[in-house]
């Protein structure tokens, strides 16, 4: 029996999970080289609400390759946020198969899922989810704490990530001392600090004005183009979705259409 640090810092017991920065799955092997970033086959998720079963996803199949820039689009209640939570290993499917970077998530227990999230996926949320009493550099460094990276190296990587999003001059400021656009850039730096294979962004411009929203989308586009990191974002804004090269339209728990630009 091994023990691993969960996302919230608590220990989670699990078996056969390989730690480290080379990849992880619950059977002690590394992620599959050259595998899709995400591969879903007939993915479904149901919830029980007041004794009634509600189907949030009803059999979604898709493949997202490394280096893609994808927008998941749909109206409220369409299932797009449920799909994002499943792709991010924040929830488990009721049925179907989901592979993340070649790893079948059904082989992972909670500790293994925490490792996969920490090592493969960077998250950017609409509400930033920054620690209010903590400096920008320490907020960004937090994912590296769970990897066991030393303090000096954590700070160096966090400073580098903040500089890459134009916040090299704001490293010791707390979130309350920053604008909404700056806080979202801190969140992007936190997503980048672990060199993820994919960044999942849930309504990343939802709490921002037009100018800051454009800046955030520009950073995500550069991340995708210059580093080759797959970017998958959820949005209800057509102008935001238009900046992605591929748009997956979700309605009533199903993929309505999947369109890709020729560029």
CATH level-3 fold name = Rossmann fold
Structural class: alpha/beta
Spatial shape: globular
Q: Radius of gyration in whole Å, from Cα?
A: 18 Å
In this structure, how is the largest beta sheet organized?
A: 6 strands, mixed
Number of beta-strand segments: 12
CATH architecture tag = 3-Layer(aba) Sandwich
Q: Beta-strand percentage?
A: 25-35%
Distance between the termini: 49 Å
* Uncertain residue ranges: 1-29
| Helix-strand string | EEEEEHEEHEHHHEHEHEE
Q: State the fourth-level CATH superfamily.
A: P-loop containing nucleotide triphosphate hydrolases
Discrete helix count? 7
Instruction: Please give the share of residues in helix.
Output: 25-40%
Outline the fold blueprint.
Blueprint: E1 2-5, E2 11-14, E3 38-49, E4 52-64, E5 69-73, H1 80-87, E6 95-100, E7 103-104, H2 110-120, E8 121-125, H3 136-145, H4 151-164, H5 180-192, E9 198-202, H6 210-227, E10 230-235, H7 238-241, E11 246-251, E12 254-260
Pfam families: ABC_tran
Domain ABC transporter: 38-263
Region (Disordered): 1-25
Explain how this protein is built:
The protein has 263 residues and is an alpha/beta fold. It has one domain: 3-Layer(aba) Sandwich (Rossmann fold). It has helices spanning 80-87, 110-120, 136-145, 151-164, 180-192, 210-227, 238-241, and strands spanning 2-5, 11-14, 38-49, 52-64, 69-73, 95-100, 103-104, 121-125, 198-202, 230-235, 246-251, 254-260. α5 runs parallel beside α6 (210-227). It is globular and about 50 Å long. Mean pLDDT is 87; it is low at 1-29.
């Amino acid at each position: 029996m091994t023990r691993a640090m969960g996302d919230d810092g608590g220990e989670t017991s699990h078996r056969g999970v390989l730690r480290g920065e080379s990849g992880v799955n619950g059977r002690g092997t590394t992620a599959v080289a050259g595998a899709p970033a995400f591969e879903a086959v007939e993915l479904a998720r149901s919830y029980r609400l007041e004794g009634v079963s509600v189907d949030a996803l009803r059999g979604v199949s898709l493949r997202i390759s490394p280096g893609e820039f994808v927008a998941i689009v749909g109206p409220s209640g369409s299932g797009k946020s449920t799909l994002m939570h499943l792709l991010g290993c924040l929830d488990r499917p009721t049925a179907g198969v989901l592979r993340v970077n070649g790893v079948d998530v059904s082989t992972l227990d909670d500790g293994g899922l925490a490792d996969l999230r920490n090592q493969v996926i960077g998250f950017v949320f609409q509400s930033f989810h920054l620690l209010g009493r903590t400096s920008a550099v320490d907020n960004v460094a937090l994912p590296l704490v769970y990897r066991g990276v030393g303090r000096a190296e954590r700070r160096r990587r966090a400073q580098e990530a903040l500089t890459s999003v134009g916040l090299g001059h704001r490293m010791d400021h707390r979130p309350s001392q920053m604008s909404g656009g700056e806080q979202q850039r801190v969140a992007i730096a936190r997503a980048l600090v672990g060199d993820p294979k994919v960044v999942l962004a849930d309504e990343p411009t939802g709490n921002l004005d037009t100018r800051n929203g454009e800046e955030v989308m520009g950073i995500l586009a550069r991340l995708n183009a210059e580093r080759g990191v797959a970017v998958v974002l959820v949005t209800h804004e057509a102008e935001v979705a238009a900046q992605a090269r591929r748009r997956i339209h979700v309605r009533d728990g199903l993929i309505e259409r999947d369109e890709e630009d020729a560029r």
